[in-house]
Amino acid sequence: MALTTQRRDEIAEAARQVRIDTVRMVHAATCGHPGGPLGMADFMATLFMEHLRLDASNRHAPDRDRFVLGNGHTCAGYYSLLAQKGLIERDELLTFRKFGSPLQGHPHRNLDLGIDFSTGSLGNSLSVSVGMALAAKLNGWDSRIYSASSDGESQEGQIWEAATAAAHHGATNLTVLVDFNNVQIDGHMRDVMDVRDLRVKYDAFGWHAVDVDGHDIDAIDAALVAAREETSAPSALILHTKIGQGVSFMHDQPGWHGVAPNDEQARDALLELGVAEADVAAMIG
Ligand SMILES: Cc1ncc(C[n+]2csc(CCOP(=O)(O)OP(=O)(O)O)c2C)c(N)n1
What is the CATH number of the domain that holds 133? Predict the structure, then answer.
């Protein structure tokens, strides 16, 4: 069933909150990765708010859904959504990357907070997710495994070993969401090492693979529904996004992969994201 207008607005608001939290967290930490989470906010919010069966009440239930963030450097947005789902205290978000905080610059497994796996070393995530999917099947759990990845992570050979294994062993309860923004740490994919057409690649590996506008909440929701209904193959959503989406001076700029905004930039970003001027002053100091 299609999203109601109210539900779409709620998801869009959750995505806006991801963007606001990301700017605040990376600014407060004076280091981190703002561009990726801004670009992923729309599909991550649709997944977390509408599809992922993970919340404070079922965080330890064996038959819950699971989420693995392969592009672990984009975790500011992930933490924001865990807070929006009541798994992380909102106050804790501003401890991001601080000594002793559970919210480090790459996810550290912590089931109390809903973090199912440690990531950051690119390439492992799909292998782990295939294992989780097959384990759920063997145990008879009605769990779906959602695995976020990226065009940069798709340069890792291990991703394609995992893709082969997933199709061969029938991990039909697995959905990978690839953030395809055509950018990675050293610049545009075409200048570093182009991964080309990921839909065609996943299709050739025996997956149900679709291209999706990664900023269209209705299209993302429909693709996640179709993935859940696909019973003959694992599913790959190739989500076409722009790094830095929502903040004009970060939009499609590879330079914002891993740089913190200074005070002035954070202020401008928060104002553009619709935060009231008085609140921005209190946030930035
Ligand atoms: C195994 C491994 N090699 C290198 C890195 C360094 N690294 C961190 S992020 C990144 C680029 C990843 O590309 P992508 O996720 O597409 O970046 P984004 O879209 O967020 O800019 C690299 C190479 C790493 N984390 N792990």
Answer: 3.40.50.970
